Amino acid sequence: MEEHGVKFLPTFTKPGKYDSQHHESYHHIWWKDSGEGGQIFLEHKVVDVYVNDQGAVVGAKVQKPDGSIMNVKANKGVVLAGGSWKANPQLRRLTDPRFTENMISTGYPFVAPDGSAILAGMRAGGMYVGDRCEDTPHLRRKFGTAHYGFPKGSKYGAPGLGISGPRWAEVIFTNKSGDRFVKELDKANLGGYTFYDAALAQPDQFLWTVFDDATAKKYHWDTKAPTCEEGYAFTAPTLAELAKLTNQPNLEQTVARYNGFVDAKKDDDFDKPAESLTKKIEQGPFHAVRLVLCVHNLTGGLAINDNAQVLGQDMKPIKGLYAAGETAGGLYVGNGMPRAIMPGRWAGEHAAAN
User: Is the pTM for the entire model greater than 0.70?
Assistant: First the structure.
């Protein structure tokens, strides 16, 4: 099929009723129940949408794995659901200038959204809704690994250590010089700033978690592979040797000063509360584990209404264009599937009925 000189592949959509017994919406192109079947193209990416002379979206420009282009004609509409731009270092800095190029994004290597769907919607006239700018959904921290969410023994990455909550009373966090940079208190608000505010401000965002062997044994922390990744965890019999291994010149004096705070039950540097000053770092061997910050979950994206229609700058819906998941902005109804299922359902029902 051709429209305005562009070749299109036909879609296989067929509007249909919602079957409450099977909880399936028949108008999605992948449901065989539609009577005409459909196809799912894995590893294909929508890079643009086509808009006709009346301003309605009539198709999608899709990039194949080999880089070639496939054009798809839309009978009812296009639902953009290509994720956020958390894996795009330039674009994600529009969300937060702290998200620098050296930060990893969660989901890699399986998920690396570059914002192509959001950009396609904006080129079609869609309006961008800014992010909520809260650190808790935005960021994650990993200890001893540069990967997120992999089980022990996975060929894709190590799980790292579960250093969180009250366990922070028995560790310190240091920067590349070996200096503490924040109170070790696992709370979202540390008194007008967050842990991430302090961590992201450190030189090269190169951070360490330091603890002694008594703490490691207490929590069964294994700093060797395959729990921690090679180069992300180090052990030495003395603090002096650990400082050399990790290139933290000030580590020895930092630990000595911190141990003094534990004895005095008063942190003169970062006001760590007395009830968390419970454990000195004094029993070798000593451990230093890399603390890696990850960009996790952005909530900025295309503005939508309650039908998941993308809104233009005049706040009116763009005919035939919808957005769901992390491509849709202004939503935070939970991580993952809820953000896709709910607007996706609204979009499908509206497209089928109109």
Answer: yes
